[in-house]
């Protein structure tokens, strides 16, 4: 969450900073600001709301700079005001932006107030800039002051600082919150996501945990947590500049829903060999690890957690290995048991999810056989710090509500299941052949859009809803409920359909829509009984059903027929209509589909 862009150049950087912030709007934010330095003239412009408001204010102020930092803030400490927006300034000399949370800000604030520093905001960030200013008086360079300051900060931060005494230098520090350096000719850049810098560079350096760097127009110096100079790999990006464009679509989310057949094709490309999965898609040492694995522990958050829940059904049924799935923020704060020959699997679109990354680091101390991540961002922290990595190749996902990242995660997890089974001598040709049909099956599911758009009208005045599924469709119901609540703000819950009698039936009435996912499998008759329980109590039911499952529409039930698919890939296919439903309901309700309130795309704090 939050976005950072910085630049040090010979030319004015105003437009570079603003364009970078626009490319990071998907991350979620509520205010924005920029600090510009030209010679020794330091100017700050801030605005509440969208980056467009900042751009207008910046144009009106008519200030420019060749060194600058910019930020989009997602409020944590302090309400949404210009005073709380970044950048923060100390004594009109040092400017700073920050992603993350400083947990010991209260004690630092008290000490700094005692030393005469005046605080103008409610943020935890302002203590950083004042402490660095104080330490700058004690050290010969800004770099040394920042290196001393970070030792006093507790929590997570990605921070960028400059001192108006030197307009050819910015200092950056990373601890738990990602930062990437962009390399140019006679200019260099910093951002929280490479997407922000694609218009100006294709060459990037990802900072490691604990790194502090000094960036000038002509040089980049990086120091590790011990203060030792280090070299980090330069990576050339192949992401296209227009990856973030909406094209013909009204919203990024709709574009990304329709990109799913292509995204899955990209995920599969070169990774299926005849009737098997190419093991090297997971890493060089994957084959031996998969032979030895007896248990899989999956850790994830939000949508990625739901993909892990589906994978538990697959791994235990088809690969014969036990599997636990846990929310990362819970896993990292409890005592857990490590099974023999256990593979730890983390799942994250960004590869920077704070709780998931912290859980991986904790697990490395607990004796897991190996770690693996399923991720969409090459070079991200989870990819760099895991033994194995499966890249989903979904492409840039801009909408806050995840769509194509989720379906490609499911594909990756199904391929993981097949790979482990293969290495244990089990024939997985049926699963692989089903996987091959997925892109076409997703295209067929997208043809339901018009009917679902009409159906969505019936949700316009609803405030609550209930999603039901059984077996591997239960996590898909959970994901459907999450999507609806995320972007339409309708309260939605998901239940395993067999749990209706244990509480949820008390909620059923004509004002509570019930959404059911019903592929034609061995649980269908059980599910039909659950549907009848709802009908008997006056509920209105919306069933996404296999066209051969014998559900029929009437005054109490709306049936949307889905083409038959193999049961193993049904969770992926049935995700599509639920995404479309949430999208069209949100459009009808007039919410901000791509940037829903209070949410962020990449959650880099606890």
From TrEMBL:
Record-annotated SIS domain positions: 286-426, 455-596
The primary site where this protein sits is: cytoplasm
Give the Enzyme Commission number: 2.6.1.16
Classification via Gene3D superfamilies:
Glucose-6-phosphate isomerase like protein, domain 1, Glutamine Phosphoribosylpyrophosphate, subunit 1, domain 1
Keywords attached to this entry: Aminotransferase, Cytoplasm, Glutamine amidotransferase, Repeat, Transferase
- One Pfam match, given by its short name, reads SIS
Where found? Answer: Cytoplasm
GO terms of molecular function: transaminase activity
CDD domains, from UniProt?
A: GFAT (cd00714), SIS_GlmS_GlmD_1 (cd05008), SIS_GlmS_GlmD_2 (cd05009)
Q: Which domain of life is it from?
A: Bacteria
Specify the Glutamine amidotransferase type-2 domain's residue ranges.
Answer: 2-218
- Active site, UniProt feature: 2, 601
Keyword Cytoplasm present in the record's keywords: the answer is yes
The answer to keyword Plastid applying to this record is no
Q: Which reaction does it catalyse?
A: D-fructose 6-phosphate + L-glutamine = D-glucosamine 6-phosphate + L-glutamate
Q: Top-level EC class, please?
A: transferase
- Which proteins does it associate with, and in what oligomeric form? Homodimer.
Main function: Catalyzes the first step in hexosamine metabolism, converting fructose-6P into glucosamine-6P using glutamine as a nitrogen source.
Which NCBIfam families did the record assign? glmS (TIGR01135), PRK00331.1 (NF001484)
The protein's name in its UniProt record: Glutamine--fructose-6-phosphate aminotransferase [isomerizing]
**Chain's gene name:** glmS
